[in-house]
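Figure 6 in text form: structure in, sequence out.
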Protein backbone atom coordinates (compact mmCIF):
# COMPACT_ATOMS: atom_id res chain seq x y z
CA UNK A 1 0.00 0.00 0.00
CA UNK A 2 1.67 3.23 -1.09
CA UNK A 3 1.24 6.33 1.01
CA UNK A 4 -1.12 8.28 -1.16
CA UNK A 5 -0.45 11.94 -0.53
CA UNK A 6 -3.71 12.87 -2.27
CA UNK A 7 -5.66 10.72 0.20
CA UNK A 8 -5.01 13.13 3.05
CA UNK A 9 -5.92 16.76 2.62
CA UNK A 10 -3.17 19.16 3.65
CA UNK A 11 -5.89 21.38 5.12
CA UNK A 12 -8.79 19.33 6.47
CA UNK A 13 -12.02 21.12 7.36
CA UNK A 14 -11.84 22.56 10.87
CA UNK A 15 -14.89 23.05 13.10
CA UNK A 16 -15.97 22.81 16.72
CA UNK A 17 -16.38 19.36 18.27
CA UNK A 18 -19.87 18.47 19.50
CA UNK A 19 -19.44 18.69 23.29
CA UNK A 20 -22.74 19.66 24.95
CA UNK A 21 -22.33 21.25 28.37
CA UNK A 22 -18.74 22.42 27.87
CA UNK A 23 -19.60 25.97 26.82
CA UNK A 24 -17.71 25.90 23.56
CA UNK A 25 -18.27 28.96 21.37
CA UNK A 26 -20.27 28.58 18.18
CA UNK A 27 -17.86 30.74 16.15
CA UNK A 28 -14.74 29.45 14.47
CA UNK A 29 -12.59 32.10 16.16
CA UNK A 30 -9.73 30.46 18.04
CA UNK A 31 -9.80 27.09 16.25
CA UNK A 32 -6.40 25.40 16.15
CA UNK A 33 -4.64 25.19 12.79
CA UNK A 34 -4.04 21.71 11.34
CA UNK A 35 -0.31 22.44 11.55
CA UNK A 36 -0.68 22.46 15.38
CA UNK A 37 -1.99 18.88 15.34
CA UNK A 38 0.56 17.65 12.82
CA UNK A 39 3.46 19.08 14.85
CA UNK A 40 2.33 17.15 17.92
CA UNK A 41 1.78 13.96 15.94
CA UNK A 42 5.27 14.22 14.44
CA UNK A 43 7.01 15.04 17.73
CA UNK A 44 5.29 12.45 19.92
CA UNK A 45 7.60 9.70 21.12
CA UNK A 46 4.85 7.37 22.29
CA UNK A 47 1.37 6.95 20.85
CA UNK A 48 -1.67 5.33 22.43
CA UNK A 49 -3.64 3.10 20.08
CA UNK A 50 -7.05 1.67 20.86
CA UNK A 51 -8.37 -1.24 18.81
CA UNK A 52 -11.41 -3.46 19.26
CA UNK A 53 -11.22 -7.13 20.24
CA UNK A 54 -13.17 -9.52 18.06
CA UNK A 55 -13.63 -12.48 20.33
CA UNK A 56 -16.55 -14.16 18.59
CA UNK A 57 -19.11 -12.51 20.84
CA UNK A 58 -21.62 -9.79 20.27
CA UNK A 59 -19.76 -7.62 22.77
CA UNK A 60 -16.41 -6.51 21.46
CA UNK A 61 -14.16 -4.83 24.00
CA UNK A 62 -11.50 -2.14 23.53
CA UNK A 63 -7.77 -2.79 23.83
CA UNK A 64 -5.33 0.09 24.36
CA UNK A 65 -1.56 -0.15 24.05
CA UNK A 66 1.44 2.14 23.62
CA UNK A 67 3.37 2.03 20.34
CA UNK A 68 6.26 3.85 18.76
CA UNK A 69 5.53 5.28 15.35
CA UNK A 70 5.95 7.94 12.71
CA UNK A 71 3.52 10.54 11.41
CA UNK A 72 4.35 10.26 7.74
CA UNK A 73 2.41 11.18 4.61
CA UNK A 74 -0.73 12.05 6.57
CA UNK A 75 -0.89 8.76 8.51
CA UNK A 76 0.58 7.21 11.64
CA UNK A 77 2.83 4.28 10.73
CA UNK A 78 3.80 1.74 13.35
CA UNK A 79 5.02 -1.83 13.42
CA UNK A 80 3.86 -4.62 15.69
CA UNK A 81 4.19 -8.37 15.98
CA UNK A 82 1.86 -10.32 13.70
CA UNK A 83 0.43 -12.20 16.67
CA UNK A 84 0.02 -9.15 18.90
CA UNK A 85 -3.48 -8.33 20.11
CA UNK A 86 -3.48 -5.03 18.20
CA UNK A 87 -2.45 -6.69 14.90
CA UNK A 88 -5.12 -9.37 15.24
CA UNK A 89 -7.70 -6.75 16.19
CA UNK A 90 -6.81 -4.49 13.24
CA UNK A 91 -6.90 -7.40 10.80
CA UNK A 92 -10.46 -8.15 11.95
CA UNK A 93 -11.60 -4.51 12.33
CA UNK A 94 -9.39 -1.71 10.99
CA UNK A 95 -11.23 1.05 12.89
CA UNK A 96 -9.07 2.47 15.67
CA UNK A 97 -8.13 5.55 17.70
CA UNK A 98 -4.59 6.89 18.04
CA UNK A 99 -3.51 9.62 20.49
CA UNK A 100 -0.27 11.44 21.06
CA UNK A 101 1.40 11.14 24.46
CA UNK A 102 0.67 14.61 25.86
CA UNK A 103 -2.85 14.95 27.24
CA UNK A 104 -2.41 18.69 27.87
CA UNK A 105 -1.92 19.12 24.09
CA UNK A 106 -4.02 16.17 22.98
CA UNK A 107 -4.45 15.07 19.40
CA UNK A 108 -6.98 12.25 19.02
CA UNK A 109 -7.11 10.52 15.63
CA UNK A 110 -10.12 8.38 14.74
CA UNK A 111 -9.22 6.42 11.65
CA UNK A 112 -8.72 3.26 9.69
CA UNK A 113 -5.58 1.11 9.70
CA UNK A 114 -4.22 -0.62 6.61
CA UNK A 115 -1.19 -2.87 6.28
CA UNK A 116 1.64 -1.14 4.43
CA UNK A 117 2.92 -3.34 1.59
CA UNK A 118 4.84 -0.88 -0.60
CA UNK A 119 8.55 -1.76 -0.30
CA UNK A 120 9.74 1.84 -0.81
CA UNK A 121 7.49 3.03 2.02
CA UNK A 122 8.62 0.16 4.26
CA UNK A 123 12.30 0.99 3.62
CA UNK A 124 11.65 4.66 4.39
CA UNK A 125 9.74 3.65 7.53
CA UNK A 126 12.66 1.49 8.75
CA UNK A 127 15.20 4.26 8.12
CA UNK A 128 13.21 7.04 9.77
CA UNK A 129 12.15 4.79 12.67
CA UNK A 130 15.77 3.86 13.42
CA UNK A 131 16.73 7.53 13.39
CA UNK A 132 13.81 8.70 15.56
CA UNK A 133 14.13 5.99 18.21
CA UNK A 134 17.86 5.26 17.92
CA UNK A 135 16.83 1.60 17.66
CA UNK A 136 18.50 -0.94 15.38
CA UNK A 137 15.78 -2.48 13.22
CA UNK A 138 18.09 -4.99 11.45
CA UNK A 139 16.59 -7.95 13.33
CA UNK A 140 13.08 -6.91 12.22
CA UNK A 141 13.84 -5.87 8.63
CA UNK A 142 13.32 -9.28 7.00
CA UNK A 143 9.92 -9.82 8.64
CA UNK A 144 8.77 -6.28 7.88
CA UNK A 145 9.96 -6.32 4.25
CA UNK A 146 8.39 -9.73 3.62
CA UNK A 147 5.09 -8.69 5.21
CA UNK A 148 5.16 -11.43 7.83
CA UNK A 149 5.49 -8.75 10.52
CA UNK A 150 3.09 -5.90 9.83
CA UNK A 151 3.51 -2.17 9.55
CA UNK A 152 0.16 -0.40 9.76
CA UNK A 153 -0.77 3.06 8.50
CA UNK A 154 -3.63 4.69 10.40
CA UNK A 155 -5.37 7.23 8.18
CA UNK A 156 -7.56 9.83 9.89
CA UNK A 157 -11.28 10.18 9.36
CA UNK A 158 -11.68 12.79 12.08
CA UNK A 159 -9.12 14.35 14.44
CA UNK A 160 -9.70 16.28 17.65
CA UNK A 161 -7.30 18.83 19.11
CA UNK A 162 -7.57 19.78 22.78
CA UNK A 163 -5.18 22.42 24.08
CA UNK A 164 -5.53 22.55 27.87
CA UNK A 165 -4.38 26.17 28.27
CA UNK A 166 -7.08 27.38 25.87
CA UNK A 167 -9.50 24.49 26.05
CA UNK A 168 -12.86 26.25 25.58
CA UNK A 169 -11.83 28.64 22.81
CA UNK A 170 -9.42 26.26 21.01
CA UNK A 171 -11.18 22.86 21.01
CA UNK A 172 -11.07 21.79 17.36
CA UNK A 173 -12.33 18.96 15.16
CA UNK A 174 -10.84 18.33 11.72
CA UNK A 175 -12.76 16.24 9.21
CA UNK A 176 -11.11 14.44 6.29
CA UNK A 177 -12.92 13.49 3.12
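Output sequence:
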Amino acid sequence: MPLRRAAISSSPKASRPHMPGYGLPTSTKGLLPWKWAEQRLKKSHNYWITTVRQEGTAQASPHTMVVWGLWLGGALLFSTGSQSRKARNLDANPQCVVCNERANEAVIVEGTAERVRDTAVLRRFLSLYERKYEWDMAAFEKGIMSGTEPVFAVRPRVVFGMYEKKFVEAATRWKFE
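Caption detail: Residues 4-9 have pLDDT under 50 and may be disordered.
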